[in-house]
Amino acid sequence: QVQLVESGGGLVQAGGSLRLSCAASGRTFSNYAVGWFRQAPGKEREFVAAISWSGNTNYADSVKGRFTISRDNDKKTVYLQMNSLKPEDTAVYYCNAGPNLITVVAGGYDNWGQGTQVTVSS
User: Fold this and answer.
1) Mean pLDDT, the chain, as a whole number?
2) 105 membership: H or E segment, kind and range
3) SS3 24
4) Which runs of consecutive H residues, i.e. helices, occur in the chain?
5) In angstroms, how far is the first alpha carbon of the chain from the final one?
6) In whole angstroms, what is the distance from residue 35 CA to residue 101 CA?
7) In this model, does residue 122 exceed pLDDT 90?
8) Separation of alpha carbons 100 and 31, rounded Å
9) Between the CA of residue 99 and those of 24, 65, 94, what are the distances in Å?
10) Are the C-beta atoms of 18 and 82 separated by less than 8 Å?
11) How far from the centroid of its chain's Cα atoms is residue 111's Cα?
12) Dihedral, CA atoms, 40, 42, 43, 49, nearest 10 degrees?
């Protein structure tokens, strides 16, 4: 199965930007859909954004216009560019991947990485 490693998190002030990376191993990555999720303390994990193998994207309403998901299949990496960050974006961010986009969006694959912490201060 694909192995995923998230990176790029950190501490940033409100209005700032971060770019997260989801690096994958496995020869089938180019055929996989990839999604980003986040979980804040005391809250359930929520969907953030996803991208299909062909480049189609989906975003949660809370991040539309601020976050952009993209992929580089040669590098086996999916990125999440986060702009205009808000304190409400503070969470641990995870990525997941699998062959079906709908299943990825639903969090139905067990290919989670360890996550990367994003903290946005006021």
Assistant:
1) 94
2) helix 101-105
3) strand
4) 101-105
5) 40
6) 8
7) yes
8) 9
9) 14, 26, 17
10) yes
11) 13
12) 10
Residue 101 CA to residue 15 CA, distance in Å, equals: 30
Range 113-122 average pLDDT: 96
d(CA 47, CA 121): 22
Q: Indicate if the pLDDT at residue 42 is higher than 90.
A: yes
| Burial classification of residue 83, based on how many CB atoms lie within 10 Å of its CB (0-12 exposed, 13-18 middle, 19 or more buried) | middle
Q: Is the pLDDT assigned to residue 29 strictly greater than 90?
A: no
Residue with tokens 């490693």: 5
Q: Which residue has the tokens 């953030």?
A: 48
CA distance 91 to 76: 24
